[in-house]
Specification:
single chain; 260 residues; mainly alpha; Serine Threonine Protein Phosphatase 5, Tetratricopeptide repeat; 79% helix
Amino acid sequence: MKKSIILFALVAGLAGLGFAQTAAEHIQAGDQAYAQFDDQKALEHYSEALKLEPANYEAFWKTSRAMVDIADVIPATDKDIKDRQMKMYTEATALAKKAVAANPNDTWGHFQLAAANGKRLLLLGKKEQIDASKAVRAEIDKAIELDSTNHLAYHALGRWHRRMDEIGGAKRFFGSIVYGSIPKGSYAESEKNLRKAIELHPEYANHYLELGRTLVALKKFGEAAEAFQKCIDLPKTTSKDDVLKVEAQAELEKLKAKKK
């Protein structure tokens, strides 16, 4: 009887060891959840991977990505939305910095640092945005230098140019007096880079949403409407697409109202 108990305990212990997931297995499970649009489950797996391997580059940037994606779609009706987003974007930025430190020669750490920090800065004042804009641009440029097929980096560059051009003209002149030098952006460069992103990944709905917004700024309203409609019509490929399609529909309705 005693031998049976010992044998059972040994078998149970070995079975338990067999079911323990490695960091690599958690990352793989996180990728599967991410592909199924379950960002929360993906975050849980990537976080577990980091607990097992606290210096794992892939776990760093993918945990950061999951945090940004979750924060992006917090309902606007949540009373503490800005606080929740700021907490997640700040944490995601810190993780992306660790990713770059762990592997400075891969595109995704640099892109993720630009993405997380860029989202964080949008919740701060204009001065903080301007002060950090060069650092964000440097990370985008590095991501493209390391991988010229990184469609999300071109997307980020297109948005960066639009944001900088939005501060243009008199705002730039007076803003420079208050805030110091403001980096120059260009709506034309925004369009160019967003079209490059589309060329690299034509099934990514968000490229068309942001291109449409840039085309509106360029007063190319017909092309903008086509871009918004394309965003709406594309099959869902990311967890954020439902929200993005609602935004594209709202942009399209604004354009229709202008024609009346």
